[in-house]
Specification:
Blueprint (H helix, E strand, L loop, with lengths): L2 H10 L8 H8 L2 H6 L2 H6 L5 H9 L3 H11 L5 E4 L7 H4 L7 E6 L7 E6 L5 H16 L3 E4 L5 H11 L4 E4 L13 H10 L1 E4 L11 H11 L3 E5 L6 H11 L3 E4 L10 H8 L3 E2 L3 H12 L18 H9 L5 E2 H7 L4 H13 L4 E4 L2 E3 L3
Parallel strand pairs: 3-4, 3-7, 4-5, 5-6, 7-8, 8-9
Antiparallel strand pairs: 1-2, 2-6, 10-12, 11-12
Helix pairs in contact: 1-6, 8-9, 9-10, 11-12, 15-17
């Protein structure tokens, strides 16, 4: 039987924990020998207790694993394991490496890679920055990695795709499971221009415990991790913890003091993280570091529709963070009804929107 069948079996096996698989591979050399090991040999490895070994042996079935592999071959998915020479070296070198990965799309070589992570419930400002940064990196030929979650992750992928770049999404579920569901189109575009990958078997549900673990893969495949908006207790900070452990560089987008979405970023700044104050300069520094030609196009300045003086003044008082009508009323010379009329006119032009009652923000 072909050795790839044993790799597919071991990658799908749920009797052995994820952390034990690379250790068993090191002890037995390959998945073929793991499959055919006796109870005595498995116990002598010192890696498994007797209960696990008994269950493991009981569930081994050559006919079934051949059938499972044949079925997998008719799917759009692929996989790679530590038994393959093309398995990313960046993943081999970390503590607790993944034995293998399922993927949909085409795996890049992971030579020039930046991960962008951040809040799911991000602000319009966070969305704007994630889109612009993703686009700038994509235009420069730098791969963007993220987790395809709502918020910053999705906008980073979208920006990279808009910039003509390649992007990779690392999922906390099976790579056949689109989560969140509204990202179906994004998923399909990522697969066309990059890859969606996961260490979890096909069909695995997006349970909460899976996401912190997948973050070590996001950071491992990256050279640099960028955080765009994060609360003080955030999954993004789990990613930066892994990144620090793996010796990666961390950069953040600075935020306003007192803003909940900035607490995590400002905390990282206090701990010595790099600060991005100019996207073009950040991308130029990276391309210089990589020895790449910077293909980045200068951002096209957005032209506003023709506004009257009142509209110009009121528009200038709003930001990419939500701002209440009451606050703007104190800052302008208009009365309440006049201000409302101007705000509604700007909203009609698509220059403001209302994320929640009586608070308006500029769209990204």
């Amino acid at each position: 039987m072909n050795e790839i069948v044993y790799q597919h079996w071991f990658l799908n096996n749920t009797d052995i924990s994820y952390g034990k698989k690379p250790k068993l591979l090191e002890y037995f050399y390959d998945s073929y020998h793991i499959f055919n090991a006796s109870k005595t040999e498995l116990m002598e490895s010192g890696l498994l207790d007797e209960k696990v070994v008994d269950k493991f042996i009981e569930n081994r079935n050559k006919a079934q694993i051949e059938k499972d592999y044949e079925s997998f071959c008719h799917s759009p998915f692929s996989f790679i394991t530590m038994e393959n020479l093309s398995y990313p070296q960046k993943l081999r070198d970390i503590y607790d490496p993944a034995y293998g990965m399922f993927y949909n799309g085409k795996l890049p070589e992971f030579n020039h890679v930046v991960s962008i992570v951040g809040a799911r419930r991000c602000s319009a400002y966070g969305k704007k920055i994630a889109l612009e940064l993703g686009e700038a990196l994509g235009q420069a030929g730098i791969i963007v990695i993220s987790g395809m979650a709502r918020g910053i992750d999705s906008f980073a992928h979208r920006g990279c795709l808009d910039g003509g770049g390649n992007t990779v999404a690392v999922l906390g579920c099976g790579c056949d499971v689109i989560y969140p569901k509204e990202n179906r189109l994004l998923y399909e575009e990522i697969v066309e221009r990059g890859a969606v990958l996961s260490e979890y078997p096909i069909g695995t549900s997006p349970i909460a415990l899976n996401f912190p673990r997948r973050n070590r893969i996001v950071s491992a495949l990256s050279d640099v991790v960028v955080v765009v908006e994060a609360r003080s207790k955030s999954g993004s900070l789990i990613t930066t913890d892994f990144a620090l452990e793996q010796g990666k560089d961390i950069y953040v987008i600075p935020g306003r003091i007192g803003d909940a979405l900035s607490e995590g970023c400002n905390k990282l700044i206090a701990q010595g993280a790099g600060i991005i104050t100019d996207i073009d300069k950040f991308v130029q520094d990276l391309t210089d570091l990589y020895g790449m030609e910077n293909k980045r196009k200068k951002a096209i300045k957005r032209h506003l529709p023709k506004l009257d003086e009142k509209q110009k003044k009121v528009y200038g008082l709003f930001d990419y963070y939500p701002k209440s009508i009451a606050t703007v009323l104190e800052e302008c010379e208009l009365d309440y009804l006049e201000l409302l009329a101007v705000i509604f006119s700007l909203e009609k032009l698509g220059l403001l929107y209302e994320p929640f009652k009586n608070n308006y923000v500029k769209p990204a």
